[in-house]
Amino acid sequence: MKPIPGLVKHNQRIAMRHGGGGRAMRTLIEEVFMRGADDIPVDGVGLSAMDDGAAIRIGDQYLIVTTDSHVIHPLFFPGGDIGMLSIAGTVNDLSMMGATQLLGLTCGVILEEGLERDILERVQASMQATCREVGVPILTGDTKVMGKGEIDSLVINTTGVALTKRIVRDNGLQVGDRIIVTGTVGDHGLAVMALRNKLELEGDLRSDVAPLFDLVQKVLAAGGDSVVAMKDPTRGGVASALHEMAGKAGVGILISEQAVPVSEAARAAGELLGIDPLHVANEGKALIGVRPEAADRVLAALKAHPLGRNAAIIGTAIAEPKGKLVLDTGFGKRLLAEPEGEPLPRIC
Amino acid sequence: MKPIPGLVKHNQRIAMRHGGGGRAMRTLIEEVFMRGADDIPVDGVGLSAMDDGAAIRIGDQYLIVTTDSHVIHPLFFPGGDIGMLSIAGTVNDLSMMGATQLLGLTCGVILEEGLERDILERVQASMQATCREVGVPILTGDTKVMGKGEIDSLVINTTGVALTKRIVRDNGLQVGDRIIVTGTVGDHGLAVMALRNKLELEGDLRSDVAPLFDLVQKVLAAGGDSVVAMKDPTRGGVASALHEMAGKAGVGILISEQAVPVSEAARAAGELLGIDPLHVANEGKALIGVRPEAADRVLAALKAHPLGRNAAIIGTAIAEPKGKLVLDTGFGKRLLAEPEGEPLPRIC
């Protein structure tokens, strides 16, 4: 192997944590994928912004582009499946960038030799149903097959394109802005963990996987320019997403733990598994930063929507400590560390 | 498992041929991925066109979108690597749709736990170098990790977006149109096969992987509206791509075997392996259908470009037999069957 000039030789190997959505993944991306990221300038939001997607100016609007590969295991889980997830996940990333017109999605599947065709048909039907719900077409696709044992069953890449006149970034918080979460946190990650650990739980613990485009349109209509930051808390959960938002904006975030909505079932599963619902992936939730004067208006718009019934104002951007989360437990305040990564691999 | 209404139950399983770019793959796509493809209409070229990509009207131009997952094994091969391939492959699909302004690419990687980080860095450097060569930025990305043994080393999805005023389809052939190939055929597939089979060959058999955007701009400048069809002959090779072009246009295609450029090294490898260079993947070649009066002009433009030096007019669209290829061997004519798929899995 010829060494690449300027690169320090690493004997490091890729570990599961490098895909976990937390600090380990961010470091890998910064050290490897950001090399040369700004060589070819983008008129808009490019790779080095490390936002939920990119935005390129075209005339008087922006083309938003996002991509996600879906490797969830198992393929079918309470509340959803990889097909629904692959559509909702990419629709949500487009929505978080402020998309107001969805143009379409691409679908690249990689299949394992020997996969039952019935499974593929169920996954495709689920993708199609979610597309119809949102009103977004699959534009084009690609099909690859790898040998038996070369890939575990099937993975799906979905890339999305959309338009907007006004991009919403994940770095727009100012001191005093309110942080809203659109519903209960931790349901997706804990539902998949409970399934993988064969936990017997009371109550109905289901993934929250859902496309948020319609909900976000209501938020943008109610909040307008006062909606200053959005991010969907997937891998690494709310804790990871808020760290990213705080770090990029150069503010701290004070969270009221008691204000964070958590379903009874997720709370029970989290206690059994010893995992904080703030640290696990959501697939149908958004974190929204709004100017304080618009917070109640946006919250009311959310609560009027079926996917926002449990929305709550959970925190405020503060001046210090910059880039950190402060958790007010009701009994005192403590720093909430940035997660190294998602506790469970292949959660999305 | 709940049966999906209207679906006949299949006990079929996915086979390697379903990813081979030939008839088996086309049938799988038609039977599974086309279900509901037209439910949400696209103003332009959508999924059901099964072209190299999609095109959506935005104002007075079209947004072109294409996606490809790259699963080639091994990752590094004579003439290129998966990084270069992932950029060139998607740039070429955009180019085949008539792109005149590349906006950017997305990059979704799936890594195997335990992958050496050096390998990832080499692949990223190669992607970046190819992007710089073309002048196209990577806009956004996604990083997933699967467990050791759950995926073979690494795969890359690249999705591309570009603009054009005039789409070029793969279905535009009319009787009398000339078919041009931009250079020698079979080099990529045979180079990878020779490596996998550890063939000892004389001469320099290398993959032709290269981004064709610049070459295609010269073609469009020289041929204008007389350039009526383009397709890059990847999996399944020239034989598969021409079958698709003939079938969609409702014409036959007569190919002069002696006119098809094949390098000495590819010919030798093809003979040793018993494989026709017309049947294997190219990654830096295009098939171009042009009105007869423009053929010489387009050919001259190609030959003036470093990637088109070996371009040749290899055939003509004919009235019958529709959807078929007729090979004129110099000693007589015979039908060239549509390949079932690429002879070698994981060729791209």
What does this structure look like?
The structure is a homodimer of 348-residue chains. In chain A, the strands form three sheets. In chain A, strands 10-12-9-13-11-14-15 form a seven-stranded mixed beta sheet. Chain A has a six-stranded mixed beta sheet with strand order 1-2-3-8-6-7, covered by helices on one side. Chain A has a two-stranded antiparallel ribbon with strand order 4-5. Chain A is an alpha+beta fold and 348 residues long. The first copy, chain A, folds into two domains: 55-164, PurM-like, N-terminal domain (60s Ribosomal Protein L30, Chain: A, 2-Layer Sandwich); 178-335, Phosphoribosyl-aminoimidazole Synthetase, Chain A, domain 2, CATH 3.90.650.10. Chain A has helices at 23-33, 82-96, 117-134, 187-196, 213-223, 237-249, 264-273, 295-303; strands at 44-45, 54-58, 61-70, 76-77, 80-81, 101-112, 138-146, 154-164, 178-181, 227-231, 252-256, 287-290, 312-318, 325-328, 333-336. Chain A is built from eight helices and 15 strands. In chain A, helix 2 runs parallel beside helix 3 and helix 5 (213-223) packs antiparallel against helix 8 (295-303). Chains A and B meet through helix 1, strand 2, strand 3, strand 6 and helix 3 of A and helix 1, strand 2, strand 3, strand 6 and helix 3 of B.
How would the global form of chain A be characterised?
globular
Q: Provide a count of the helices of chain A.
A: 8
Please name the two chains that share the biggest interface, counting residues whose Cβ lies under 8 Å from a Cβ on the partner chain.
A-B, 89 and 89 residues
Tell me roughly what share of residues is in helical segments of chain A.
25-40%
